């Protein structure tokens, strides 16, 4: 269920189908039992001893659902176990270090939780985050008392910021976005709705801008056919006016995306910049914005790369974002009720668990421990208040 990102009820229903069809023979657990197992394994992951003898990297971020609470999450990995040069970090490489619901997140509260997390892994060598204001301040405060800890800005957030600064004030980009939105409005209630452009994110728009560029390029191919696609002509003939702009935007996005891919796998070290230059090849575009983006990416690598020979730093929190996405798929409708005890599922989502590990987790973690943690840590959740509201208004 965790690997597939299935909902609790979906996992139970899938097992019921397998039993009914004769593929296996077992007592099918209800969704409530599966939920209990998941939370007990997650609680065990959150409280089990971790190795403090080796330097760790922490990936830190907040996730928000509804209500006033934020969830501060720290996932970690011993630096000597990061597969630099082979592949990017995966969920199986990580451990759940800390999981803290916060009514108020600021530099002081973040610093306090970072200090508390050192009880599990020791003082980390490296903290990687998107450096949102509260995280940045909290990490800086933490570094004051732990000067050997290095803070690195997530490369994808940095790249998205570069594109935002380069494009967001461009009249041509602004008009392109408006024209896409106008076309979508006209298409939405028609038989040609399959030509709807992907929606831009309301937040962090430039983290995923590639989908709009790719869509525009595909539509241009429809328009360039010997016999152009009739519906594409009807709704998107204006795209031809942006062909030169799209070439530049795709090239600049390519500079950023290549840097993200190189850093994601290589990490930051003394050879990262030369690897990036090799991956870029010759940059022929002399457009000022393109030159500036390339130089700023070089500057990012020079600034954050370690000075110690042989040392490498992680510089991507992509896998942390992936864990949030998987958690929300497991929560399904419950995510609309704010934070619930299911946040403990993060402990089951990350890391690897053998059959023996799972057995130990379930045997050493009674449901009562989980219930106590949820009551003590989350208090009265949005879900609890919703139930009380509907109970009071039934009459």
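Sequence proposed for the structure above (395 residues):
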């Amino acid at each position: 269920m965790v690997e597939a990102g299935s909902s609790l009820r979906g996992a139970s229903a899938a097992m019921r189908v397998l039993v009914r069809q004769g593929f296996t023979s077992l007592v099918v657990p209800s969704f409530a039992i599966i939920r209990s197992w998941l939370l007990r394994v997650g609680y065990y992951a959150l409280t089990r001893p971790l190795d403090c003898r080796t330097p760790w990297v922490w990936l830190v971020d907040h996730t928000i659902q509804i209500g006033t609470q934020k969830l501060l999450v720290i996932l970690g990995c011993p630096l000597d176990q990061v597969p630099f040069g082979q592949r990017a970090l995966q969920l199986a490489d990580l451990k759940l270090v800390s999981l803290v619901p916060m009514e108020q997140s600021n530099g002081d509260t973040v610093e306090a939780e970072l200090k508390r997390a050192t009880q599990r892994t020791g003082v980390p060598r490296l903290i990687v985050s998107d450096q949102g204001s509260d995280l940045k301040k909290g990490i800086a405060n933490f570094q004051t008392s732990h000067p050997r800890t290095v803070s690195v800005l997530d490369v994808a957030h940095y790249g998205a910021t570069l594109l935002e600064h380069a494009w967001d004030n461009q009249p041509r980009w602004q008009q392109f976005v408006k024209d896409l939105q106008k076309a979508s409005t006209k298409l939405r209630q028609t038989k040609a709705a399959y030509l709807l452009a992907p929606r831009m994110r309301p937040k962090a728009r430039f983290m995923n801008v590639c989908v709009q560029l790719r869509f525009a390029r595909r539509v241009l191919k429809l328009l360039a056919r010997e016999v152009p696609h009739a519906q594409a002509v009807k709704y998107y003939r204006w795209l031809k006016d942006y062909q030169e702009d799209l070439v530049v935007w795709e090239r600049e996005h390519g500079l950023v995306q290549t840097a993200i891919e190189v850093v994601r796998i290589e990490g930051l070290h003394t050879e990262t910049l030369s690897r990036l230059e090799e991956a870029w090849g010759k940059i022929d575009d002399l457009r000022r914005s393109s030159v500036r983006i390339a130089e700023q990416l070089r500057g990012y690598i020079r600034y954050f790369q370690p000075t110690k020979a042989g040392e490498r730093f992680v510089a991507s929190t992509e896998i942390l974002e992936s864990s949030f996405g998987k958690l929300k798929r497991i929560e399904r409708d419950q995510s609309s009720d704010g934070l619930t005890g299911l946040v403990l599922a993060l402990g089951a989502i990350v890391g690897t668990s053998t059959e023996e590990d799972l057995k130990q987790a379930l045997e050493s973690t009674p449901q009562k421990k989980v219930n106590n943690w949820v009551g003590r840590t989350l208090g009265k959740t949005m879900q609890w208040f919703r139930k009380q509201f509907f109970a009071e208004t039934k009459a």
